[in-house]
Amino acid sequence: MTDTTHLADTTDEQLETVLAAATSAATYWADRAPHERATILTAVADALEGQASALVGVAIEETGLPEGRLTGEVKRTSVQLRMFAEELIDGTFLDVIIDRADPDFVLGPRPDLRRYQIPVGPVLVFAASNFPFAFSVAGTDTASALAAGCPVVLKAHPGHPRTSAATAAIVRDALATAGAPEGVFALITGFEAGVRALKDPRITAAGFTGSVAGGRALFDIAAARPIPIPFFGELGSVNPAVVTAGALDERAEDIATGFVASFTLGAGQFCTKPGILLVPTGSPITDRITALTQQVPAARMLTAKIAEGYHHRIEDTAAVPGVEVLVKGTASTGESGVPEVSPTLLRTTAEHLGAHADTLLEESFGPAAIIAEYGTEDEVHRVLGRVDGTLTVTVHTRTEPTPEEQNELRRITRIAATRAGRLVFNGWPTGVAVTSAQHHGGPYPATTAVAHTSVGTTAIRRFLRPVTYQDAPEALIPAPVQDRNPLQVPQAVNAAGESANWGRSHS
């Protein structure tokens, strides 16, 4: 177990070595059969699980996060690797489509066309601060890029350098033992090294989880390159939650306790934290939420820098006209030197929320939330319409809505679907299930690539691109699109045939 107390910034010479190795390894890694990459990813998962106790110990000291949370994160990290391994064995991710030559095709003679997905090349991953395992060194971006066949250059987050070094050492050793060449994975450190890597033409895509300001700056660099590259950033999200009168009639206490637990979980440092709660005007749930929030103890922020940004954000929000402070959070410095804060709860009206959307409808990364009271459903519609892109929108409804309520809920969900990547009903958005159907994304600024997710097996699609072989000589046809299908991957053959028949029958 590596016990690095300090990680020096990667030098120019070291970065050059890393990028050259990643470029050298790219062809080898891309050419490995999916089942071979699956075996190697599984080996990495095994290694992380085998060192879980030691990793968690380092992370507890460095981040202050509880043992149970970190143990669960290591498990999630290994599970993600295994899920991508299963995806590789399944082969569906290659999206193989074969249309054989057809001289009688309805639009004229059709050539032989064979389409599948190939890796984009070396990927730069910027690790997140708030998940030292699941979204960090061996996290979802790294796992999905490696699964796609792309070498990974991982820029460590300064908030947990020892945890990053320890995890990276395990990943490198596991890859090497399993037969992967040098260059398939490497860790770099330091802001400047990350920017230099992003600008380097050998990097073909990047993944990021962090702030809007930081992510947008990097996104602009990626777009301004002589040859721009895809930048898959998860930035900021306010995650509004709407509570209907019918829901309050049924389970006001459950909603109150669930909301407080959700917005204060992990000191509010989750990207899916519900930052806005829309409730009917005059509802007693506001008093109950206030009382519950006052009982939540102070918790450590991840870094002093994050704590500083949080305090500035709370000051700006509380200063907006029409905003009332229901619970004023406290701050103190713990033994670690990192601030510990208790929650802040604010109240305003839906009208004020919309009028000051530029300030109030922005993410507050930390244990703060706004209760916004609405008088009519139209006010809810207007607020949701003013929300920028968000990861989630939550709606609490009566268990069995009346026909009138159903009609109103359809309007709300229609608006919500234009703003968010995931709609949550009668639950809370914190806690993102790692499954094939998950979509952890949304319109900007939730992400910079609305069509993609950073959680779930479809995250692999970010680091693949389609290529079609037309009338290729048999000796040059890649294995996934060969007629004999040596890799036994799913193939859609002559899918255009039905369209051709349809054209004939209606000509």
Automatic annotation (TrEMBL):
InterPro entries: Ald_DH/histidinol_DH, Ald_DH_C, Ald_DH_N, Aldehyde_DH_dom, Aldehyde_DH_Superfamily, ALDH_KGSADH. Keywords: Oxidoreductase. Gene3D superfamilies: Aldehyde Dehydrogenase, Chain A, domain 1, Aldehyde Dehydrogenase, Chain A, domain 2. Pfam families: Aldedh. One of its GO terms (molecular function) is oxidoreductase activity, acting on the aldehyde or oxo group of donors, NAD or NADP as acceptor. Residues 5-440 form the Aldehyde dehydrogenase domain. Transmembrane segments: none annotated. This is Ketoglutarate semialdehyde dehydrogenase. It comes from Rhodococcus wratislaviensis (Tsukamurella wratislaviensis).
